[in-house]
Design brief:
Shape: elongated
CATH topology of the largest domain: TIM Barrel
Largest sheet: 7 strands, parallel
CATH superfamily of the largest domain: Glycosidases
Strand order of the largest sheet: 5-4-3-2-1-9-8
Number of domains: 3
Bound molecules: alpha-D-glucopyranose
Length: 475
């Protein structure tokens, strides 16, 4: 009876609030206002370009960070990497310097990936760096080095764990096709695993100072794999949801320990207020600023430089420096952040491919970062000319045109810009660009919209990978 009245009350409240009864009864992790959230995320919204680092035992296999799964390795087989892990050339100061010079504002490092190996001296597992031949915590010096170069530090932590004995086996587990193994593991107590995750994340959130971003990776609720025959399964043990990770309590704890932190969206808490701060398109560029329920959401794209996240010897698919620069611009032009990933070798260095790309990025960022940091999507009404991308800094009221293909004609038509531009220049060298009304021939009926102007560009493309035009707008 009381239940019925409670439900009726809920319905009335839900109706008054304009939400579904299910939503009205839902868990709330944080009740901060939109304004408080915007303030907490301000550094993040302005920083725009971050570095991702995937490093661990898989760097020794050097053929994908998922090699344990891809090759169906047992724990015992994978252990050969644990026994020889010794990154003798590891010098995080050099990493931090390279990151700073390339223009990154923060870094996110894998503290534990799906293989379950911890890169710090955790109290809760023996499968950790301090028990390898290297014998020292990798995370402490990392955090110090990046901070002293002025970068913020974020952590990636995989809730997926192929090593921990209490994490229930599922379709992503390397042994999921091994019937004996699966049968033996059905009785595992996921609650113990949840406790382990919480303990480890507590260490990370307490022992390394201010952690500004956290990447928790990842969940696959029923239906997550569609009808992919290699993944989907009609077994209910195939999947992992917020319940399996103890997501709600985990995120609550993180927010309590690190009130300023920003958290990604992979713990299956999409409908829980405070359960996530930004969405994470991976290895693809959204066509436009991503929305949820009709509202634009904060987003952070993630891309590798090569094909995989961990170091992969001889991989062919390297993006060029120019492509990376293009990705940065494209992301900001749609109001997002970008993490570019580097997979250091097992000796502890960024390999030549990565260094080469970082140098190209740094050369461009040095002269053009004003169109990236603090920028977002251009306001309505400014139409990007062909082969260009626009970004906009709301604080300085300047608009940036990134010219992907230098025009063959010097007349560069800007629709929607008429009357809005005070001054124009090339960004990299602050050299003035003239602009004027287009010539409208009285004899021809060529239609040029009223608010179109022409920008006079030099015939020769400036010696910049992607030249940027800076427009000072009228107030
Ligand atoms: C995926 C992959 C993983 C990588 C991550 C980065 O979840 O499993 O290897 O760490 O995405 O976004």
């Amino acid at each position: 009876m009381t239940r019925v009245t409670d439900y009726l009350k809920l319905l009335i409240v839900a109706f008054l609030l304009g939400v579904s009864p299910q939503a009205a009864s839902q868990t709330v992790i944080s009740d901060e206002t939109e304004a408080q959230k915007a303030e907490r995320m301000q550094w993040w919204t302005e920083a725009r370009l971050g570095m991702f680092i995937h490093w661990g035992l898989y760097s020794l296999g050097a053929r994908h960070e998922w090699l344990m799964k891809i090759e169906g390795m047992t724990d015992a087989e994978y252990r050969r990497y644990f026994e020889v892990f010794d990154p003798d050339l590891y010098d995080p100061k050099q990493w931090a310097k390279a990151a700073k010079e390339a223009g990154f504002k923060w870094v996110v490092v894998t503290t534990k990936h799906h293989d379950g190996f911890s890169l710090w001296d955790t109290e809760y597992s023996d499968f950790k760096v301090t028990n390898t031949p290297y014998g020292k915590d990798l995370i402490k010096p990392f955090v110090e080095a990046f901070r002293s170069e002025g970068l913020r530090v974020g952590f990636y932590y995989s809730v997926i764990d192929w090593h921990h004995p209490d994490n229930r086996v599922d379709v992503l587990h390397p042994q999921w096709r091994n019937e004996d193994y699966v049968a033996k593991n059905m009785g595992r107590d996921q609650k113990k695993y949840i406790k382990f995750v919480r303990n480890q994340v507590r260490e990370l959130m307490t022992n390394y100072g201010e952690i500004t971003e956290l990447w928790l990776d990842y969940s696959y609720p029923p239906g997550a794999f569609g009808d992919n025959p290699n993944r989907s399964s009609d077994q209910d043990w195939a999947f992992k949801t917020a319940e399996d990770w103890g997501s709600v309590e985990l995120v609550k704890m993180v927010r309590k320990l690190q009130p300023g932190i920003v958290i990604n969206d992979r713990l299956d808490l999409n409908d829980t207020p405070g359960g996530w701060d930004f969405v994470t398109p991976e290895q693809y560029q959204p066509r436009e600023w991503p929305t949820l329920n009709g509202k634009r959401v904060a987003w952070e794209g993630v891309h590798t430089i090569g094909d995989s996240w961990g170091y992969f010897r001889g991989e062919p698919g390297w993006k060029s420096g120019r492509q990376l620069i293009g990705l940065v611009i494209d992301t900001v032009s749609k109001g997002g952040n970008l993490l570019i990933n580097v997979g250091p070798t097992a000796r502890g260095v960024f390999d030549e491919h990565a260094m080469d790309r970082l140098a190209a990025l740094g050369r461009w960022m040095k002269y053009n970062n004003r169109s990236i940091y603090g920028n977002t999507q251009a306001p309505e009404g400014f139409k990007a000319p062909d082969n260009t991308l626009l970004t906009y800094n709301p604080r300085t009221n300047r608009l940036y045109i990134h010219v992907l293909e230098w025009p063959v004609l010097q007349a560069f038509y800007l629709d929607g810009f008429g009357g809005k531009v005070k001054y124009a220049q090339l960004l990299h060298d602050a050299s003035e660009l003239g602009f004027r009304d287009p010539y409208r021939s009285p004899e021809l009926d060529e239609e040029i919209p009223e608010n179109t102007i022409i920008l006079d560009l030099p015939a020769q493309k400036p010696n910049v990978e992607i030249p940027v035009i800076e427009l000072f707008l009228n107030d």
